[in-house]
Amino acid sequence: MRMPRRGLVIQARTRWLLVGLALLFSLVLLMYLLECAPQTDNNGSLPGVVGESMGKEYYQALLQEQEEHYQNRATSLKRQIAQLKQELQEMSDKLKSLQEKKSPKVNGMNYQGTKEQTSNDLLEFLHSQIDKAEVSVGAKLPSEYGVIPFESFTSMKVFQLEMGLTRHPEEKPVRKDKRDELVEVIEAGLEVINNPDEEDGQDEDDGVGDRQLYSENDFIEGYYRTERDKGTQYELFYKKMDGMEYRHVTLFRPFGPLMKVKSETVDISRSIINIIVPLAGRTEAFAQFMQNFRDVCIHQDKRVHLTVVYFGQDGLSEVKSILESVARETDFHNYTLVSLNEEFNRGRGLDMGARAWEKGEVLMFFCDVDVYFTAEFLNSCRLNAEPGKKVFYPVVFSLYNPAIVYANQDIPPPVEQQLVHKKDSGFWRDFGFGMTCQYRTDFLTVGGFDLEVKGWGGEDVHLYRKYLHGDLMVIRTPVPGLFHLWHEKHCADELTPEQYRMCIQSKAMNEASHSHLGMLVFRDEIEAHLRKQAYRTNSEPVG
């Protein structure tokens, strides 16, 4: 027979009630024993507790220890809360101060704080250094000695003008500060290109995935110069291996952090160079020139026009034959031959070559028959000349007499193997201004050459000074891809005293390095010493 459901519920509740009462009674009994237990000298045992037990003092000590722990914790929390309140108050005061600075009172009492004013003054000073430096516009200079030349560099080498007797025309940046400086500049240029801002003219909507990123391997070349009272200017050029667009970044360090001046894309894919060469005789040198022209301009660059201005009749037929042969073999017809039946005048020849162009604006490279250039130089020519803004006056590396440089060899090596930047092989021709890249309109606007100058030298310096006295910027820097080949130089008696002095100076400078010239001067003394050494060796008795 089953018990009714209601009876089961009542029975369960009664059982749980009895258990609860028993537990409550046990708790009350335990508390009574703790309160009523007699105190003894030793820790007594609680009756009814099996085993060894602790006395009342133990629990009191335990409670006191816990109380001290929580008091210490509370004190620490109060201290942290006080610190947080203080910091919050300081932040609130700063925020209030910034709000007051942004919204100055009408009575003019709330101006910017001292620190902010100092920062603004410094920034204003740094920008004024850029404005005063010759970065965006040219400066009028009294003479050719007033220009501050650039020095050029790649990621591995520096090409420098001021060598003294210990430095080299081409060398790796040995000093750590120079190395770190150039690395920092290249990276800063990359940062400007890869993270353009609004003033760089690039669309902000173009994401990083759509924009072509540049790396250190895309750095082509750079130029730098320091105006000692203003700062250092850097002109940097980057290009992708498979592209024709160059990225040009100008930076300026006003004796402080680098400051971006501009960042632009330079497209030189359609920039034609009219190479103008004045010539009289010297057909063998012209044949060698045309071999280099064929390799560099026709086969590699393919964006040039050649203008040869020939003086006199002797050798004219050979020059025509060389040009026609190259045209026939390479299908190159972008050349002009201007014949002048008069005495050679370099300035007049270049002037006639510039005026013979009838297709409007063009970039011109005034060149000589003894100059060897590379395809990289032609791009440097395009990048550093800009109509109405700047002209390019590269410093040529002039090679010494190969008969002296390679005197220890039976014959000098081929020309291509002589093209090295070493102290004993050549020097930066920083006193020469004949090789230049400039636009035709700038040349005509400044008035061209002084055609009154006759014979050798002087006309290039006059033109250079015209630009220095004007508003165009003159880019003066050594470039690794431009060489002047040695050739015998004759100084004619018809030259003026000034021209003759310049001709002799150039002849002496072109012959050999300081050490090689010293060996030639003391050659007799050296040979006498060698003879004495040989005599002593032969006179020693054989042991």
From TrEMBL:
InterPro entries for this protein: Chond_GalNAc, CS_glycosyltransferase, Nucleotide-diphossugar_trans
UniProt EC number: 2.4.1.-
Gene Ontology biological process terms, A to Z: chondroitin sulfate proteoglycan biosynthetic process
Pfam families recorded: CHGN (PF05679)
Top-level taxon of origin: Eukaryota
Entry coiled-coil feature ranges: 60-101
Cellular component, GO, one term: Golgi cisterna membrane
Catalytic activity: 3-O-(beta-D-GlcA-(1->3)-beta-D-Gal-(1->3)-beta-D-Gal-(1->4)-beta-D-Xyl)-L-seryl-[protein] + UDP-N-acetyl-alpha-D-galactosamine = 3-O-(beta-D-GalNAc-(1->4)-beta-D-GlcA-(1->3)-beta-D-Gal-(1->3)-beta-D-Gal-(1->4)-beta-D-Xyl)-L-seryl-[protein] + UDP + H(+)
Membrane topology: Single-pass type II membrane protein
MF terms (GO), sorted A to Z: glucuronosyl-N-acetylgalactosaminyl-proteoglycan 4-beta-N-acetylgalactosaminyltransferase activity; glucuronylgalactosylproteoglycan 4-beta-N-acetylgalactosaminyltransferase activity; metal ion binding
Sorted UniProt keywords: Coiled coil, Glycoprotein, Golgi apparatus, Membrane, Metal-binding, Signal-anchor, Transferase, Transmembrane, Transmembrane helix
Record-linked SUPFAM superfamilies: Nucleotide-diphospho-sugar transferases (SSF53448)
Localization of this protein: Golgi apparatus, Golgi stack membrane
Family affiliation: Belongs to the chondroitin N-acetylgalactosaminyltransferase family.
Official protein name in the record: Hexosyltransferase
Species of the source: Corvus moneduloides (New Caledonian crow)
